[in-house]
Amino acid sequence: MPRTGPPIPAVFLDKDGTLIDDVPYNVDPRRIELAQGAAEGAAVLSEAGYALVVVSNQSGVARGIFTEDALPAVEHRIRELLANFDVPLAGFYYCPHHPLGSIPRYAAQCSCRKPQPGMILQAAKELRLDLAESWLIGDILDDVEAGHRAGCRTVLIDNGHETQWQWSPQRRPDVLASDMAEAARSILDAAAPLTHVLEGIA
Questions:
Q1: What's the rounded Cα separation, in Å, for the pair 137 and 92?
Q2: Which domains does the chain have, with CATH numbers?
C-alpha cells in the first residue's frame, strides 16, 4: 500500500558491492553479508530520518541463472541483517531485465534497469519520497547516472567495481566514499546547512 503523508527524503542503495558483499549472481541467503561499513552507514542514515530503499539490477533472471522467485528470500535476508542494527528497510526494488537475456519474457529494453531511473521513480511514487532531498549510493557509474536522472544527489563507493569510467555530466558523482559509513557521514554533512535553514524557519 502506498505510504501517506508528506514526501520524505530517502537514500537509495545499490545492493551488490554497496550494501552487501558482491558475490556474483548469488541468491543463497546463507552467503549474503553486509558490506564493510554498511551497518554503520545504514544506522546513521536511518537515525537521521532517511528512508532506505534498495534498487538493484538483477540480470541473472533474464540470463536464466536464477529465477525471479529466488529474490524474496534475498530481500528477507537483507531485512534480517539490517534489523540486527534496528534499521528498517523502506523498500526493495529490482530489475529482472537485460536486453541480451536468454529468457524471452525478461529479454527487453526497459525503463527500470540502471542507468535508467525507473526503479527510483517507482519507489518515489509508491513511498512518497522527496527526490530533490534524496541520495543514491552505488559502486558503479550506472548507479550514479540513474540517481541523477531521477533528480537525486549521488555517492560513488570507490571500491574498484567501476572499471570502465565512461564519463558524462550525469555520471559524475557528487561525493566519493570508500564505504557506506563514509558515504553516510558525507550525506549528513552535505544536508546540514539545509537542516539548519529548516530549523530556522520552523
A1: 14
A2: 10-201 (3.40.50.1000)
Instruction: Cell 529468457: give the residue.
Output: 103
User: How far apart are the C-alpha atoms of 96 and 68, rounded to whole Å?
Assistant: 7
* Dihedral sign (CA 147, 72, 50, 1): positive
5 band by pLDDT with thresholds 50, 70 and 90: confident
Q: Are 134 and 9 in contact (CB under 8 A)?
A: yes
CA distance 171 to 163: 13
Q: For 10-47, what is each residue's pLDDT tens digit?
A: 999 999 999 999 999 999 999 999 999 999 999 999 99
What is the spatial distance between Cα 29 and Cα 149, in angstroms, rounded to a whole number? 31
Q: Grid coordinates representing 168?
A: 558524462
21 catalytically annotated? no
| Burial (Cβ within 10 Å: 0-12, 13-18, ≥19) of residue 83 | exposed
Considering 16, 139, 143, 179, which one is annotated as catalytic?
Answer: 16
Instruction: Judge whether 16 counts as a catalytic residue.
Output: yes
pTM of structure: 0.92
Closest CA to 56 of 138, 176, 177, 153: 138
